[in-house]
Amino acid sequence: xxxxxxxxxxxxxxxxxxxxxxxxxxxxxxxxxxxxxxxxxxxxxxxxxxxxxxxxxxxxxxxxxxxxxxxxxxxxxxxxxxxxxxxxxxxxxxxxxxxxxxxxxxxxxxxxxxxxxxxxxxxxxxxxxxxxxxxxxxxxxxxxxxxxxxxxxxxxxxxxxxxxxxxxxxxxxxxxxxxxxxxxxxxxxxxxxxxxxxxxxxxxxxxxxxxxxxxxxxxxxxxxxxxxxxxxxxxxxxxxxxxxxxxxxxxxx
Length: 253
Known about the structure:
Blueprint: H1 13-16, H2 48-53, H3 59-64, E1 74-75, H4 77-86, H5 91-110, E2 123-124, H6 148-158, E3 167-169, H7 170-180, H8 186-203, E4 208-210, H9 211-218, H10 221-231
Antiparallel strand pairs: 1-2, 3-4
Helix pairs in contact: 4-5, 7-8
Organism: Lipomyces starkeyi NRRL Y-11557
GO molecular function, one term: monooxygenase activity
Protein name: EF-hand domain-containing protein
């Protein structure tokens, strides 16, 4: 079989941002979007227990289930606030996250139910795909499914410092946001910067985010892991404590 050309001589960017080749060796039909499994070459079956328990939800829906505290399919601003507190963010960051996310994503998901804005700024789990914005990573498709090939591409294209292509630095994350942006899409640019910077704050280790941790962010399983490790028999009220590391920092236990 003839090899597939992934770079063009007259396009320098196709050389500086190579695509992942060989993902199909570990993941069957890696380019086909998975409805409920976040697959990677290291974990072709995704997060097995989590995926099995939430097989009736798309990966994008799984990503936000952590904030649906009473599992009624509706996420209120206070749910977002409490969720960020559970993850260890301080009160100011958690309030800002609740405000920005509710304002930005409530109405798009509301459109599946009504043309009138939701007076409580709820986000609806069943129609979260309507809130998918532009200039994102491309890992989640327009229906909320996970595309393994695109996930692998992120690390092949942008992980330059780590020779194993299994981690991303903060500067590489900003290169990712820059590389994925669409023209005339300021909302998408802002949303992507906010999402990836928050992700870096949450899961960075030695100033890098690991591939497996990022995969588990996409399917939402990592959020529950973090809450379980942090709980120690208390609850979301831990979020009322300010971090000594600064306004935006994650609280230390």
